[in-house]
Amino acid sequence: MRLAYYPGCVAQTSGKELDLATRYVCRTLGIELVEFPTFSCCGSGFVDEANEVLNVAINARNLAIAEKAGLDLLTICSTCQGMLTLANLRLGDPAVRARVDAALKPLGIEYRGSTRVKHLLRVLTEDVGLDAVRAKVRRPLAGLKVGAFYGCHLLRPADEMAWEDGEEPHAFEDLLAAVGASPVYYRGRVLCCGFPIQFVKAGTASRIAGRQIQDAKAHGADAMATPCPLCHISLDAYQNQAEKAVGAALDMPVFHLPQVLGLAFGATPEELGLSRHLVPVGPALAKVGSGTATGPSSAKTA
Predict the structure, then answer these.
(1) Could you tell me if 162 and 280 lie in one domain?
(2) Tens-digit pLDDT profile for residues 5-39
(3) Chain centroid offset of residue 137 CA
């Protein structure tokens, strides 16, 4: 399997451990990542708020680069997934299409609309398949209870993302179970992490993140895992602020999605960049092998 690799901004800067883990997992599963240094930022939702057509044009350019190479595009960020997918859909509006085409023409770029955008979580669960993932497990994560945290843009708008149920998804939990962990179901797993308002109302953003972490903890999670680097920033990098906002110690390790798989595939903490996390992951790693994963550790509704 060959895919155009779209790492996004965070995985190339403050979240380099996400890139490390993604490369490890893809090598293990035989996924070839084709790199394009000319990819640009997806706009992260902020450009979209200011100028929808400009945001579509930015992403149409990225999609055109993958299309020219004849490849589908792999994302490792829920927000990038959302922006790129919405760009494909909005290009169906003739008025938007005309303006975007006009913006790209001076660059010598034409996008015909054939690029499919696939988040790593979907590639793993649908294209690779859970059986193939299980076959690569060398260190089953039995004993570790993990609360998946999806992030907004991977699920919603549900009719436009056209994938998992926005309220009751299960792909991430299925993947966690496949590598031996016990998935924890809690309401906050499909809610916002607070990142979109972190730079406008930091206190509100921290309370949002803190409540989601408390929810996962109350349902027995030893750790959380997210497919979105922006969610990881809110839940891990700003967890100290979240503690202040909710007035309680949280001490919740937060993994990137491919780090969880990498651990199960036998990678060392160094290979996965686990030392880069601000909340120590040692307590969660100590749980691995301490019990037998038997399925979800709580009910699917909170």
Answers:
(1) yes
(2) 999 999 999 999 999 999 999 999 999 999 999 99
(3) 21
Degrees to nearest 5, angle at CA 213 with 207 and 216: 140
What is the spatial distance between Cα 241 and Cα 237, in angstroms, rounded to a whole number?
9
290 inside domain: no
pLDDT digits (tens, 9 = 90+) for 254-289: 999 999 999 999 999 999 999 999 999 999 999 997
Residue 302 in any domain: the answer is: no
Tell me if 293 is assigned to some domain: no
Buried b (16+ CB within 10 A) or exposed e, 85-116: bbbbebbeeeebbebbeebbeeeebebeeebe
Residue 230 backbone dihedrals phi, psi, to 5 degrees: -70, -40
Look up residue 81 and give its amino acid: Q
Domain hosting 239: range is: 138-285
Distance from first CA to last CA of the chain, Å, rounded?
Answer: 38
Is the whole model's pTM more than 0.90, yes or no?
yes
Residues 146 and 280 both lie in one domain: yes
Same domain, yes or no, for 47 and 153?
A: no
